Amino acid sequence: MSDFLAGAGVLLAAAASAAAILLPAGRLRSAAMLLALALFPALILGDQWHSRQIADLRDDPEQLAALALAALAASAALAAAFRRWPILLPLAIVFALPFRIPLHAGGDTANLLVPLYLVISGGVLASAWRAFRPSGTIFPEGGAVAEPVDAGPARFLPWALAGFVLLYALQTLYSPDFSKSLQNVCFFFVPFSLAYTLLRDVDWSGRLLGLVLWVVGLEAVAFVVVGSVEWLSRDLFWNDQVIRSNEFHTYFRVNSIFWDPNIYGRYLALATVLAMSALLWARERRAFALLTALVAVLWIGLVPTFSQSSFAALLAGLAVLAALRWSWRWTLGAVALLAVGGVVVVLFAGGVSKLSPDRLNVDTGGRANLVSGGAKLFARRPVWGYGAGSFPRAYEEHVATRKAPVSVSHTEPVTVAAEQGVIGLAAYLALIVVALGTMSSGLFTTRAGSVARVAVLATFVALLVHTMAYAGFFEDPITWVLLAAAAALAGPAVRDET
Q: Whole-model pTM above 0.90?
């Protein structure tokens, strides 16, 4: 695929995704979603056609055709199920969020969100079927489409999100690693935009919210069981890098079904915040007991990840819950005391004389150098940056003094600033402000806010804090699910909330 066609395809896919975010439900939006859905695999296949990952499939057309037919059949089956039982769509998306499938080809391995992509594909097909057959009901089981929000910060959320998607696609055109930026657009921004659009239409009733909590809770418990088996057996299922690092540490980190212990820790931290949101407002003893047991199990699973960023994320989410449940003033004071205590421990318990850039870099697992390197890249091109997805290549060419694998700065604002400059940083911050405004509107001034909105805000804050130490804001589908839920819940009050 020529660079010109690939660039045009990326822009078209991003434009279709942005249109899907902005357009109201109807045929035009369904057409945009179908276009984005079709371009997503086509662009990836074209970009990787000569790579080792695709070589085996390219040389075996029958296998390639069989995989395509299998994906189409699975999407069609899911679409039929979603048309018959629409409540399954949000549940299926939430269920599929953690699962990455390792695909082996040409000696390389890629961990892709294949189950989630299939669910999104089925949802798009179901939505298109309803749009082009208007005689059918949209949600036959009483889940009407959420009413659009015409006031408050929520009205700006789709524009902020669509604007960032378009900006990122435009900044792929001058990236020194166009293939990487294309993959980011196609693997993350396009399908997650479609997921956002599908979930924005969902009526988040009390029944659905309860089922979502069950799905997340049962999944998280299953992951903790896997992680506990790993810890007890001192044997990981995958990720050779973590396996090797465990051989040189006095502690043993687990990753359960996840590739990285920090991502596993992130999921458990977010699930814990979600469970605590329900626990703090639980009205029945049985629910209180079940949620208490769930939180205890999740904490047991979180400890052997040894993920400092996940512990920080959990504390941030719990602080939001404490502020909303009791007093934001007392919570703010407690957070300030904890921050001061943390600084004192670092400065004096570790020894002030031992503090140095090299020591700081070691203590942060190499993140200090990545952050300072990202700052240097930003200083070189402060306005437009080096281009979307360019951090690894730009860091290696302009900052690194030795060859070492680099993915991102591990601090989301630094990655955005280095890759997209002030323009991208402004768009990113605008999205964060609008999202927080949408989620928190009215919650701190009244006690009438629904538990669902409290849970979304606290979980989003926890995720945001985690990305300050581990990045992956836009690359995590949970971000887009929370944004969609916030947009939907900003409308009419949730019915039948328990």
A: no
